[in-house]
Design a protein that fits this description.
Elements (H helix, E strand, L loop, with lengths): L11 H10 L17 E3 L13 E6 L14 H10 L4 E3 L6 E3 L7 E4 L2 E5 L14 H12 L14 E8 L2 E6 L6 H4 L8 H6 L1 H6 L7 E7 L3 E6 L13 E6 L3 H9 L5 E2 L4 H8 L5 E15 L9 H9 L3 H8 L4 E3 L22 H10 L13 E6 L2 H16 L4 E6 L2 H7 L5 E6 L8 H9 L1 H6 L6 H13 L6 H15 L2 E13 L4 E2 L1 E3 L11 E2 L3
Helix pairs in contact: 1-13, 9-11, 10-12, 14-16, 14-17, 16-17
Length: about 550
């Protein structure tokens, strides 16, 4: 990670990854990795009835970090950056389709690995400077260049380089042919080259983009204020004069702010709060099936977790239904695969880890632990990422493990636990993730968790099957392949070897005040997209 705070939309898994990717600082906060109340407006037709001079007030759960789009990952920063920056293409968080934003049309293929992308002329950054082909190419290349340590590089591994070829066009050369270029360009925020090169730290604190809103103020543990940019040339101009992202990290205080109308919509209303919110006739609550998940990860380099039978035994000792009913109050589904069941590439795996204590004991006995699981006479350490529902789930898991004679010491914490993970100083980790904010194609979702980075540096899964998994993931990014079949084979390896495994996919809650705002459609992913939400007049 780096010193930039990872929060909201990116779940704690994202934390770990960025922390390890940039050892400049471990404290890349995934203190968060929380879910946001994903929001997108259903229609702009109501805009005429809205108060265009109003301020949209939002309660956010996470603090801010850098706003630099090459590294930004906290929920509050992601919500702000959707308003500050444009991308060549963007993936809708409502229908999951990728469409042109700054670009004009789809990428034009010039050769097997060569593409041209044209973009809208006349666009300007918030400081009045024009958006040039040099800016667009620079924004792509600084993410692709490994020495920059961009969090987003992992999503565009096939891009070799980009170069300007006209006033409004760039040429993108790939390392290999793929049909994912358009989808993956949606993670690249276009930034002014001159400002980034002049002072990167200042740019991260005071970002300049070409989106419909410009930053007015940002204070840690306080708020982010954005104002409509009248020079915006795109198709989604701001519907309100200002957007105020109020940072309210205490869940009870955040809900109270919604209750009394201090804010009109909140990020991450907890499952425990949903019934109380529903009882308030002035508040609407909806849930959408999402990707957001808790997962178990093993340190496969440390005995006895280098034995897959031990890893399998621990998974058979988990009652996923109990986790959902108790920790999530019924708001989720058991994870049968990395992909949720509503994903178009989901295929039902043959292997499943249902709750089976007898099978768990049988596997432990085969592995030489018939009398219970200890490591050199000590308890094994379960690192648990601290969010209310993940901690509740972890407590249930650890309780079941102890009932079976596993000697477990639980270490619950925030960002500090990730330094242990990066340094391989852990046995088991229970944490949360939602990488669907960065894309919806199946290869991206699998590459995030099971690509070479995680296997080499986090769960240390090695060997013949690990190599086979990497080959399949690489092949799944090529064009003209049966991606669902390839990813199903990857999933089969994951279930057999169990270096890490998802426990459930949590439903994503959204809560807002319909009397204050309109056009809200709950999303299936974390953080917020509020570009088309309007404030009601009067």
């Amino acid at each position: 990670m780096s010193k930039h705070d990872i929060g909201g939309a990116a779940a704690c898994a994202q934390n770990i990854q960025k922390l390890a990717m940039s050892r400049r600082s471990f404290m890349l906060s995934s203190v968060s990795a929380l879910v946001g109340a994903g929001i997108l407006a259903s229609s702009r037709a109501d805009a005429q009835e809205a108060a265009s001079d109003a301020t949209l007030k939002i309660g956010m759960a996470r603090d801010i970090g850098s706003f630099d789009p090459a590294v930004a990952v906290t929920s509050t920063v992601i919500a702000a950056n959707l308003l500050i920056f444009e991308r060549l293409y963007e993936t809708s968080y409502s229908d999951r389709q990728t469409r042109a934003q700054l670009a004009i049309g789809d990428p034009e293929q010039l050769g097997e690995t060569l593409y041209r992308v044209k973009f809208r002329t006349g666009s300007v950054f918030h400081n009045g400077e024009p958006v040039t082909a040099e800016d667009v190419a620079f924004s792509i290349n600084r993410i692709v260049d490994a020495k920059n340590g961009s969090f987003y590089r992992q999503f565009v591994p096939f891009i070799k380089t980009a170069k300007p070829i006209a006033d409004n066009a760039v040429e993108i050369e790939l390392l290999y042919a793929t049909d994912l270029l358009k989808d993956r360009l949606a993670v690249v925020g276009i930034a002014p080259r001159s400002l980034v090169q002049r002072d990167l730290e200042e740019f991260g604190a005071k970002p300049i983009g070409s989106g419909p809103y410009r930053m007015v103020a940002a204070s840690a543990n306080d708020q982010v204020v954005l104002e409509r940019f009248d020079g915006y040339k795109g198709s989604t101009p701001g519907l309100v004069k200002k957007v105020q992202l109020k940072i309210i990290t205490d869940a009870a205080a955040r809900i109270a702010a919604l209750d009394v109308g201090e804010v009109s919509i909140v990020e991450e209303p907890g499952d425990l709060d949903l019934d109380a919110l529903r009882s308030n006739p002035e508040i609407k609550v909806e849930l959408q099936p999402g990707f957001l998940a808790s997962f178990v990860m093993f340190n496969c380099s440390k005995p006895p977790f280098d034995d897959k039978r031990v890893r399998q035994a621990l998974m058979y000792a988990i009652d996923k239904d109990e986790l959902i009913n108790v920790a999530l109050f019924g708001n989720g589904k058991p994870a049968k695969s990395l992909l949720p069941q509503h994903h178009p590439l989901y295929r039902e795996p043959e292997t499943q880890y249902g709750y089976n204590p007898d099978k768990a004991r049988e596997l432990l006995a085969e592995a030489g632990y018939a009398d219970g699981l200890k490591i050199d006479g000590r308890a094994f350490i379960c690192q648990t990422y601290l969010t209310p529902w993940n901690e509740s789930a972890a407590n249930l898991i650890v309780s079941k493990w102890r009932e079976m004679g596993f000697d477990v010491q639980q270490n619950v914490g925030g960002e500090a636990i990730y330094s242990n993970v990066v340094n391989a100083n852990y046995d088991v980790l229970i944490a949360i993730t939602d990488q669907s904010w960065f894309g919806w194609d199946g290869s991206l979702l699998y590459e995030w968790f099971h690509g070479a980075f995680w296997s080499a540096q986090l769960n240390h899964f090695k060997g013949e099957q690990a190599q086979r998994m990497q080959e399949l993931l690489q092949k799944s990014m090529l064009g003209d392949v049966d991606r669902a079949a390839l990813l199903s084979e990857v999933q089969a390896i994951i279930l057999e070897e169990t270096p890490m495994s998802l426990l459930f996919h949590r439903d994503v809650p959204t809560a807002w005040r319909p009397a204050d705002i309109h056009g809200v459609v709950p999303l299936q992913t974390a953080s917020l997209d509020v570009r088309t939400i309007s404030v009601n007049r009067g």
